[in-house]
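Question: what's this shape?

___
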Amino acid sequence: MSIRDDIEKKADALTQSERKLSATLLADYPYAGLLSIQALAERAEVSAPSISRFVTKIGLSGYQEMQRRLIAELKAGDRSPVELHEAGQPILGGYLAEFVSRAARQMQTATDAITESQFNRICALLADPKRSIYAFGGRISDTIAQHLTFHLRQAREDVFHLPRDPEAWPEYLLRMRQGDVFFIVDFRRYQSNVAQLAEQAGKERKAQVILMTDKWLSPATRHASEVLAVPIDTGTIWDSYSAALAVTEALVTRVAEDTWSDTRKRIEAWDAARKDLVEIG
């Protein structure tokens, strides 16, 4: 269980000053918790003894233990396949059946991590015709971003996927208008340039940054207005994106169904154009 989970479990029992501290920690998680206790007290506008009482209330022995656990969470977010294999849970018996079972548990857990109200907010943003949609992901997780844009393009206009070449990124950043949506996917072994893109899109272009990440939280989290923390760990050498794909498909399907009248016309026009191009080819 993460420190974030510990804080959220005690949310109803926190005092006013503790709620202020909780908000400060979660707004820049986990980095705020790595500050000195004096620096955190100044940022949250609470006293150092208040912080000590807070960490005890969430079940920790003291501030140092909280920092040790936060550092461990950061290290877990940078594990290589070699480290995952060494610390993994070997599959015994029928490999396929057990692997699919673990993936199914991931998908179920995703529905616990993402509230229905958050899901609805994000769908509304993606469906809003006044907003352009941009998407991008990490080395491997970009396949999720591509999947999102492939389906959204058939439901609506102004959907763009950023290419892999960083030299092309400024063109897309300069296209972004205030309120446009930048959907980013970044799982552990995070890429620093993804966080930099999120920062520029959010701070400079005033875009709405939606981040799909894992429970260890990409550094891009601090620049996101919405964070979808989906499970990826299967206990095997590779992380699994089954839950991420399921959530992505739920998003694009909901958008298409909510805008079905326009979506249907666009799909029909799309298919007609594609048919004509195939015949020409």
User: Anything to note?
Assistant: The mean pLDDT is 88. The longest helix spans residues 260-280. Strands lie at 133-137, 159-161, 181-185, 208-213, 226-229.
